[in-house]
Amino acid sequence: MASLKDHCAVVAVVVAICFVVLAAALPSHASTAVDEPAKYKPSRAPAPSPASASSYVPPPVQPVIVVQGVIYCKSCKLRGYNSGMDASPLPNATASLVCYGDAESKYRVLNQTSTATDTNGYFIVMVYDVGMFDCRSCRLYLRSSPTALCAAPFIPSNPKLGLTLVRDRAATAPRGARGIFHPKTALMYAPGTGGKCPPY
């Protein structure tokens, strides 16, 4: 009967033979070591060159003349009533700016409607045809009232007469503005012959 020592020797030989067979069967480039994952390298967009960054030119600002003013309702105690003037701001009224050209402008006439007045009676006219604007030949007229209860022209009393303009040198002009102008006095409507004021 074979001893335990002989059996162990046989097992060792068999294991050695199996190892040699497996080694021969594996491809030559196989490796039991695990490869390290490739390191991630984030790609970055190229930075703009100083030349392209400085080549941006902002669009030109269109020149403009700003004409502003206030329209009141005389003798009516509405919201914002001014006791010194005995008048209240009239919202949603409009004015007209009319400028008469000279021979150079072929005697053209500029006629622009203002924005509707806000709750403070304030309106504005933006004149982009600056060649037509001359404060000596431009006038502001009452154009429309939002209510028949305060629609009688008061200043000026004749709707065919306009108010002359003066330059507002204290106001800060927006970018591109050639100047800010306003009439010498506020424009005013008044109640008609019935004397009844608007309810607001």
UniProtKB/TrEMBL annotation:
Pfam families: Pollen_Ole_e_1. Residues 1-25 form the signal peptide. Transmembrane segments: none annotated. It comes from the Eukaryota. Keywords: Signal. Residues 37-56 are annotated as: Disordered. Residues 43-56 have a biased composition (Low complexity). The keyword Signal applies. This is Non-classical arabinogalactan protein 31. It comes from Zea mays.
